What does this fold into?
Amino acid sequence: MSSFKRKTTSKQQSLQPGTRISPGSTSTIITSTGIPSLDDILGGGLPLSCSQLVLAPDPHSAYGELVQKYFIAQGLATSHRICIVDDDARDFLSECVWIPGQATHSPSHAADDEEDEKAGEDDAKIKIAWRYEQMKQFQTTVSDSNQSTEDYCRTFDLTCRIPDTVLQSSVASGQVILVPVSAEAEDQPSVRILDAVEQILVDHAKSSESPAPIRICIPSLGSWQWGDISPRDISYFLYSLRSILRRHPFACASVSLPPPLCTETWGGAGWVQKLGWLTDASITLAAFTASPSLTAMFSAHHGFVHIHSLPAPHTLVPPSDRFSTLRGLSSSGENNLAFKCMRKRLIFETLHLDLEGGVGERRTTPAPNAMAFDEVVTNAHPQVGQTANALEASAGGNATVQVEVEQMEVAASSMSVADDRGEEKVGTVKKVKTKKKVAFMSDRPDLYDF
It folds into this structure.
């Protein structure tokens, strides 16, 4: 009998509310960001002792701050401690999303909710053919039905706000810690904030043997409240914050930068890639607001999702490479990702075109340009040498194209045919089908170089 015995733990590790074991490593504890599709991209959630960075370069939107509001709301719903670093932290906290049913709705919102439920029931029934009713519908994002029943990830509504009673009780009990940025007679508050955050984590670790997870949220790192800050200061702050989180395995952080600081023009060439090296997870939400052509092409989405880095605290390969559904590495390679902000929620999904190459509704009549071309051909007289002007291209073509239709007719009523006996027979000639030729004439022949 062998003397070697396998070491096993006497009891299973107890998990705090709102946490679970990472599917990629049993020694990694993850928590939810509040958005199920973003959790899927990160490999199940944001690991504790890690930081994530959300870049939103569009100055006309606030998608980066919206992700932070989900992050805070998820922490409040699961009784996690929250540290918000901002001068307007109370106002930012009051604008966070909340769980539907636990916050008051306005009458208009209640009516809209009923209409959305009815529309969802109508859309759920497939009206194409009876044989397709049993087929699985095409899914572009992950379903939150499994997570909504658990305490790991709650379902939030963008039309709901946190009640004042919850805000007052959380601040009074110390669940929410507000850290101001600006201070008198101080030029660089980054060092002071790092010391304050580390002191908060040290005191939280001393409070109990198994401290609850604590979330550090910085909605706008490098804004005007931080004074005159340089790319070197941003790099030093992110690197120091990540090293602090490594020493406290029960904490995680989520950071956003102002739109001007999210572009290569502010930090120099390779700035966005450098930010990905300084954080565990880094993504960019590139909105379509500044590009009307992309808005028209992808009308069902609001922007692209670019992944710069993914968390892998105890593994060589990020768990997202093996367990992410949206990235799709297990089947057909990485998919393009996009996001859209609906009236009630923010969704990350795979990028796809609408029906019929971008047309939202199925067309039952010919296209307008096709009808106009048919009229030109119909009104043309069937004689040799007739010319019809074609329509100008709607895509901005400046060349004028002329289509010349030539028809060949054979005018013969009868002919004599001699048979083998030498007798002549008069017969009619079969009608020959008219041959049509099309020639393109343009003042810019380089456009039609076949």
Observations:
- The CA atoms of residues 289 and 295 lie 7 Å apart.
